[in-house]
Amino acid sequence: MFHILIADPISDEGLDVLVDNENITLTKDTGLTPEELENRIATFDALLVRSQTKVTRSIIEKAKNLKIIGRAGVGVDNIDLDAATENGIIVVNAPNGNTNSAAEHTMAMIMSLSRKIPQAHSGLKNHKWERSKYVGVEVKNKTLGIVGLGRIGTEVAYRAKGQRMNVIAYDPFLTEEKAEKMGIEYGELEDVLNKADYITVHTPLMKETRHMISVDAFRQMKDGVHIINCARGGIIDEEALYDALVSGKVAGAAIDVLEEEPFQDHKLLELSQVVATPHLGASTVEAQENVAIDVCHDVQKHLTGDLVKNPVNMPSVPSDVLSQIEPYFHLAEKLGMFLIRLTEDVPEEVNIYYSGELADVKIAPITRNAVKGLLQRHLGSHVNDVNALYLAGKKDITIHENRTSTTEGFTNLMTIELKSKSGTRSVSGTLLNGLGARIVRVDHYSVDMMPHGHIVMIHHQDLPGVIGKMGSLLAEHHINIATMQVDRSDIGGDAIMILTIDKNPEQKELEALKELEEISDVTAVDL
Ligand SMILES: NC(=O)c1ccc[n+]([C@@H]2O[C@H](COP(=O)([O-])OP(=O)(O)OC[C@H]3O[C@@H](n4cnc5c(N)ncnc54)[C@H](O)[C@@H]3O)[C@@H](O)[C@H]2O)c1
Ligand SMILES: O=C(O)CC[C@@H](O)C(=O)O
Fold first, then answer.
1. Could you tell me which residue ranges the ACT domain spans (predicted)?
2. One domain, residues 265 and 346
3. Alpha-carbon distance 135 to 130, whole Å?
4. 180 is catalytic
5. Which of 35, 184, 437, 478 has a CA positioned 20 to 30 A from the CA of residue 265?
6. pTM for the complete prediction?
7. Are 408 and 322 part of one and the same domain?
8. CATH code assigned at 144
9. Ligand 1 centroid to residue 350 C-alpha, Å
10. Do the Cβ atoms of 249 and 218 come closer than 8 Å?
11. Which of 105, 159, 202, 279 is catalytic?
12. Catalytic residue selected from 50, 71, 105, 232
């Protein structure tokens, strides 16, 4: 049974996705204080939030069962992503569902600023008919500067063009060709600041964008510029904006978001040239349904073992690519689990070689599963594909991915090589059409074994009678051999025997095998 805590108001249309699942329980408890959330979170498998709830490191560290945090919206600046990743908790968002609403809200803010609609409305509500006080300006032929031309910025650009505005935009991913295709002007940040009559920001809030519009940026703007922030508080330096409004440099500002929310007492709100809404960009029926449905689908997928569509702290995999590579996840994890048993030393470097068909697919998710298999022996079951690479880095294990053309006759071949102080060990596997995964090489020995069950790997000398002795010894301990593979380097030289047996061998049984003089090493692996 999975328990989901809904900590912010999430649309029922989304929750309906989860309600019908009999393995899921939903607890709605909105408006919890950080301390209350910290005290409650331990029993939950999933947490659903919007922008209000701050999911801090201390909350995440108390969340011993948490597997997924669903953010019904775009911005994830209210979630400590590093803490989530370190703790193997996947974070998903709903990046597409509120794009239109945020863009429409931005346009409404631009029009409100230009025609002073909120101020005039307030006047009338206070029984004042003040037509001359609220003379506005047209937006037609004015220049709108967009900082951040992603999903919302792009939609704002098209809407502004519909209002006959000129649009200039800055985004690190915007090219001149793309700008030309959109019928807008391409600019550096400086060009946008210099040329625009209205400046609207649509970047995420990150280290790089915090206070990107500050004193220096205001200095570069036209006198009488209008500023709009429907993205995130913190992108604009609020002190600098306040001063620029008071000095008249900025004619008006429209604000949906501020650094501290809720913000009913902020000094910017005291200025008559500021219009503001309480973080309403995504607050439409449509947007809330869309984001709730998207995020709830992903939460359900993750809890039932499927890959999610909108991961934030893991690369996403398009479904056509996923169907190609998913069958290799199991093979990769088992190869990793097997290989780590071949050394008692601290792993230092891992090389993963992808050959044949595997050389042409997206390998990163396969690598994550291999590393997960490797690390689980020492780090336990909290290693998962969200934190596997992070944890490997923390343990100073370097991971290299290589694509090669050496297929050794297989249509696909994956080899993992593990380097440690005592040397290099390796294991190779393949996926046989219709037959599933096979381990086909252990170090330089060829084998053919299914990667599951109780496996005993024995290094011995290639001499007559060894196999018989070993078989009798196992029989004495009532151990039944299910399959056996043997390979050798030379006649009479080193040889390997891999058995699958019907029960987990006890330590004393392994010790008894080691006592046979022809046997140099015995390793048990449970896959
Ligand atoms: N007010 C609201 O209710 C509301 C609703 C939805 C989204 N948002 C906010 O809007 C932001 C944008 O949403 P989106 O869906 O368009 O995201 P997006 O990822 O599609 O677009 C963000 C764009 O910003 C660009 N960018 C990043 N750093 C930049 C920089 N230093 N300078 C210029 N551009 C930069 C990126 O390249 C990207 O194209 C979200 O992060 C969220 O915080 C607010
Ligand atoms: O939760 C909300 O309504 C705000 C969402 C918005 O800020 C976002 O980043 O998607």
1. 455-527
2. no
3. 10
4. no
5. 35
6. 0.84
7. yes
8. 3.40.50.720
9. 37
10. yes
11. 279
12. 232
